[in-house]
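Data card: per-record layout.
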Amino acid sequence: MKALRDVFGDTLVSLAGTNKNVVVLDADLANSTKADKFAKAYPDRFLQMGIAEQNFVGVAVGLASVGFVPWLSTFTIFFTHRAIDPIRMLVAQTKANVKLGAAYAGLLTGLTGKTHQDVEDIAIMRAMPDMTVLAPADAIEGEAIIRWATEYQGPVYLRLARDASANVFDQSYRFVPGKTISLRDGGDVLLISTGPQSVRCLQAAEALHGQGISAGVLHVPSIKPVNKEEIVSASEKVKLVITVEEHSIYGGLGGMVAEILSEAAPRRVVRFGIEDRWGESAPNDYLLDLFEMSPARLSERIKKVVGGR
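The structure for this 309-residue chain is written out next.
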């Protein structure tokens, strides 16, 4: 079990050993995002840009135009709320080969303060044309996605939680853009999730099994692009679909699943997530319980919905 921020730093160091075009630009948060690992290993390919997020996006586009593969590193909130204009105009519209390493995504940033929590980023980024949006569940998938994104030609937004989650994949895992992954089969309800929340969904499903509820879990690491047919096929096996995400219930994974199913296979979709409110400054476990994202609270909530069906 390894924190995704450590995966980010270590994988980029490894990639730089064989790809001389990999460079990293940081916005004064390298010791938090673990981009400092790259800075120590390749100081001549690391650019400390300071607290100037709009500027470092522009610099990255310039570097990409002459053949470099720039990875940008800062907190999620600063990409989607401070640097969104240059990302839209300079990166997405030109299809620049720029990679956005969005650290400290989701709820589990409470100790940095509620101002630093971003639970609107998926909605913002998946609505942007020509932007690929990815969210790994664990360290193994995180490394695979970073390696894939480095080779892919075009903009990538990578959503990275700060802390570690239990591994659900082994070393045989290979990332395929758009592909969804069934973590567990179930006949009563299908849980669809993304990022590390998929791990907590799997734990909740295991708890529900002991209570007589058969819950399937479908992990969606590739939010854009996504294989709509796989989501439809998995959902057609049950009457109830519940989406679970460390994100606002508006415009994120839940919104995407509802859009897909309403067009292709109408059925009841319940969206679990952040319900139109701000986060809190608090420890992780407290936040997961408060927003009913922990395995225990999640299983209780699912049981009520299934029972009330």
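Known properties of this structure: Residues 295-308 form the longest helix (14 residues). The chain has a mean pLDDT of 95.

See the next section for split statistics.
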